Structure formats: C-alpha cells, structure tokens
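Hi, here's the filled form for the chain we discussed.

Project: internal
Contact: R.S.
Residues: 133
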Amino acid sequence: MKPGRLWRQWWLVPALLGLLCAGPAPAAPEPDPAATRQALRALLASAQDGIPRGSGCDGDYGQRGRARVKDLLAVQLAYLYRGDNVITGGCAGNACELTIRHAAGEDVASATLRFEQRQGRARVGTLRCVITP
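And the returned structure, exactly as it came back:
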C-alpha cells in the first residue's frame, strides 16, 4: 500500500472519534403556550377575513363562496379530536407563525401558517400556508 493512501485513511480516525465523542444535538426548545396563544388570537381576530388567492391557504373547506380564515382554522382544528396533536407558534415583532400538527397512527397532517400582525390582528394579505395531508 502506498504511504499517501495510508495517510488518507488514518486522518479519518481522529475525525470519526471527534464525531463520536461529541454530545447529542441540543433538544428543541419547549413550546411556549403564551406565544402560541398570541399567534392564534391574531388569526382568530381576523376570522371573518377572506383568504387571498395564491397564498397556499385558499381552497374548498366546505364553505359557501370564498374561503375565510375561520374556514381554514375550522378544518385544521377538526383533526384534533383524537391522536397526538400539537399547536405551536409565536410572533417575533410583527412576523407570526402557527403550526398545527396531528398524528393518529398512519394519519399524519400538519399546517404551518405564516403571517404578519398589526395591533393583535393577522394581516390576511400576508398569510402564507404550507399544508401537508
């Protein structure tokens, strides 16, 4: 075996030892119920507002006419009657995010809603959603 090749293999040993000796990744921070309530309240305050087209949140939620924030929340929260369910969120300045996760066996779904708020109300024109079935 050539010396250059052997050297390339040996330098991996300290690198691997460093990775093995490193501690586990830090745990995710615990959800803050007060921050979650702030984001949820902002959305509920805008419940009657129509959802803009192209936001990723618009769709047919069983309503008549254009979808409103309350229609989106009603469908997402309806999943929470059983299983493991988590609602997390918060606001940093005017930027808010609310995530609703549902898991019951193989049935897994989530919705992440991002928006800006002003004076405790969601600015629905800024609403963006990532919804997974």
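Let me know if anything looks off before we file it.
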